[in-house]
């Protein structure tokens, strides 16, 4: 059996985790999060790939690549693009792949402009406000819904 391939997409400014507003986003780095997820995926016999960019066009390109690279599930933290990117939404719709939307902070307890997501209505689920644990929960779920 070929292992499932799960793609984790990290949006803008997530490369600054551990330095940027730790009172909101915590002290873990993106590398810390990716290492934990790699361990969980390995135990679940799944392949996992990570992608982070601050550029919307690069994120769109990577989402589109998932259509042909064997990806079976996407975990995405669109970060600030959650509230602005119709282009990323359209790319996710085009892939027809299941995905879970992740947010480290509770977007509903923050500024009102953060309360709207262009992704939530298409997502299998949304995890918001649980810090990096949200990524882990999303991955554990993805491993249970293998195709």
TrEMBL record:
<keyword id="KW-0028">Amino-acid biosynthesis</keyword>
<feature type="binding site">
    <location>
        <position position="77"/>
    </location>
    <ligand>
        <name>substrate</name>
    </ligand>
</feature>
<feature type="binding site">
    <location>
        <position position="83"/>
    </location>
    <ligand>
        <name>substrate</name>
    </ligand>
</feature>
<feature type="active site" description="Proton donor">
    <location>
        <position position="103"/>
    </location>
</feature>
<protein>
    <recommendedName>
        <fullName>3-dehydroquinate dehydratase</fullName>
        <ecNumber>4.2.1.10</ecNumber>
    </recommendedName>
</protein>
<keyword id="KW-0456">Lyase</keyword>
<feature type="site" description="Transition state stabilizer">
    <location>
        <position position="20"/>
    </location>
</feature>
<dbReference type="GO" id="GO:0019631">
    <property type="term" value="P:quinate catabolic process"/>
</dbReference>
<dbReference type="GO" id="GO:0003855">
    <property type="term" value="F:3-dehydroquinate dehydratase activity"/>
</dbReference>
<comment type="subunit">
    <text>Homododecamer.</text>
</comment>
<dbReference type="Pfam" id="PF01220">
    <property type="entry name" value="DHquinase_II"/>
</dbReference>
<comment type="function">
    <text>Catalyzes a trans-dehydration via an enolate intermediate.</text>
</comment>
<feature type="binding site">
    <location>
        <position position="114"/>
    </location>
    <ligand>
        <name>substrate</name>
    </ligand>
</feature>
<dbReference type="GO" id="GO:0009423">
    <property type="term" value="P:chorismate biosynthetic process"/>
</dbReference>
<feature type="binding site">
    <location>
        <begin position="104"/>
        <end position="105"/>
    </location>
    <ligand>
        <name>substrate</name>
    </ligand>
</feature>
<comment type="similarity">
    <text>Belongs to the type-II 3-dehydroquinase family.</text>
</comment>
<feature type="binding site">
    <location>
        <position position="90"/>
    </location>
    <ligand>
        <name>substrate</name>
    </ligand>
</feature>
<feature type="active site" description="Proton acceptor">
    <location>
        <position position="25"/>
    </location>
</feature>
<comment type="pathway">
    <text>Metabolic intermediate biosynthesis; chorismate biosynthesis; chorismate from D-erythrose 4-phosphate and phosphoenolpyruvate: step 3/7.</text>
</comment>
<dbReference type="InterPro" id="IPR018509">
    <property type="entry name" value="DHquinase_II_CS"/>
</dbReference>
<dbReference type="InterPro" id="IPR036441">
    <property type="entry name" value="DHquinase_II_sf"/>
</dbReference>
<dbReference type="GO" id="GO:0009073">
    <property type="term" value="P:aromatic amino acid family biosynthetic process"/>
</dbReference>
<dbReference type="InterPro" id="IPR001874">
    <property type="entry name" value="DHquinase_II"/>
</dbReference>
<keyword id="KW-0057">Aromatic amino acid biosynthesis</keyword>
<dbReference type="GO" id="GO:0008652">
    <property type="term" value="P:amino acid biosynthetic process"/>
</dbReference>
């Amino acid at each position: 059996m070929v292992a499932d391939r799960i793609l984790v997409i990290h949006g803008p400014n997530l490369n600054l985790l551990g330095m940027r507003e730790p009172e909101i986003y915590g002290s873990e780095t993106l590398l810390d999060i990716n290492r934990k997820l790699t361990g969980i995926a390995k135990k679940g016999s799944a392949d996992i790939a990570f992608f982070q960019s601050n550029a919307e066009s690069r994120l769109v390109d990577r989402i589109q690549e998932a259509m042909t690279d064997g990806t079976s599930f996407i975990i995405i933290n669109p970060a600030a693009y959650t509230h602005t990117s119709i282009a990323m939404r359209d790319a996710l719709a085009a892939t027809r792949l299941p995905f879970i939307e992740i947010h480290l902070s509770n977007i509903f307890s923050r500024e009102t402009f953060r309360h709207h997501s262009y992704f939530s209505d298409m997502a299998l689920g949304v995890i918001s406000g649980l810090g990096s644990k949200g990524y882990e929960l999303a991955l554990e779920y993805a491993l249970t819904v293998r195709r």
